[in-house]
Amino acid sequence: MRVELFDFDLPEENIALRPENPRDSARFLVVRPDADPVLADHRVTELADFLKPGDALVFNDTKVIPAQLEGIRHREGAGGQQVSATLHMRTEPDVWKAFAKPGKRIKIGDRIEFGHGSETCLLGSLMATVEEKGEGGEVTLRFDRSGPALDEAIMSVGHIPLPPYIAAKRAEDEKDRQDYQTIYAREEGAVAAPTAGLHFTPDLFAKLDAAGIERHFVTLHVGAGTFLPMKVDDTVDHKMHQEIGYVSAETAERLNAVKARGGRIVCVGTTSLRLIESAAADDGTIEPWSGPTGIFITPGYRFKAVDMLMTNFHLPKSTLFMLVSAFCGLETMQDAYAHAIKTGYRFYSYGDSSLLFRKD
């Protein structure tokens, strides 16, 4: 499909720079393609009103790490140069793939010193060697530390990698370390938050429990590729960056039981949806899953397991706007986004949310 089909104009004032407080007070656009009315305005606190006992919410419990690193590139015969690297996928205990800037000036064999002068890192800095170069500024970094020691060093010298549409308007601060994290995050490894989950609070969980709504957790470590713009004219030419995910045997069994008794699977965020659809067989049975997924969902995709989706409002011409268009229909989502813009919904990571019913 032509990427331009998924374009729209978004005024700057619709981009959220901070989350609502409390989190569950955000606006909530309910989209039901096969109902009348199709669009209805609500608040996230009303989520349980649109679910029924026995439905299951599926959350991504990944935890954001401070994966934005600033450093100095060292090369024999050349002066030091300031570089930045955003870690996006761990491949070995001491190896990360990252997007580096300026990527063109980095060569295989370069040594990069991150966090020089940090008072909290025992090393004072964190060293890495460039082992490979890929496309779009991607590099493979082998660090001089490994495993938990490397994790501790990254926590010490790194910064929260705010999405570029926020970072361009303000600097990251200490408040983001709490705001850009779900209250149920536990598996460290994400570069970006599963932002639909940012709306949940203990009070909202209590309402859902009282309504008989199940909660299940999967893990997909969101990579920096989620922020990359599409640079192709046709979706067939786009290559998704892979992300590592896990669906346990116990979770798969419980979700299959939900479906068997007529309950609905409601994914909180596109990350949990992509993982569940990756793990689902053609007949809708969810299998245990462990490994990378690069699933790219566009209109025409046949959803196998997911019935409903809670998600924020996404960028124009993004893979995520394509996904929600596949879920509800392109025309329906174009109308939904036009309504959201006109009525002042807040977009992107810290913005408002929506509940999408799958178009059948």
UniProtKB/TrEMBL annotation:
It comes from the Bacteria. GO terms for cellular component: cytoplasm. One of its GO terms (molecular function) is S-adenosylmethionine:tRNA ribosyltransferase-isomerase activity. Pathway: tRNA modification; tRNA-queuosine biosynthesis. GO terms for biological process: tRNA queuosine(34) biosynthetic process. Its EC number is 2.4.99.17. It catalyses: 7-aminomethyl-7-carbaguanosine(34) in tRNA + S-adenosyl-L-methionine = epoxyqueuosine(34) in tRNA + adenine + L-methionine + 2 H(+). Keywords: Cytoplasm, Glycosyltransferase, Isomerase, Queuosine biosynthesis, S-adenosyl-L-methionine, Transferase. Belongs to the QueA family. Transfers and isomerizes the ribose moiety from AdoMet to the 7-aminomethyl group of 7-deazaguanine (preQ1-tRNA) to give epoxyqueuosine (oQ-tRNA). Monomer. This is S-adenosylmethionine:tRNA ribosyltransferase-isomerase. It comes from Rhizobium wenxiniae.
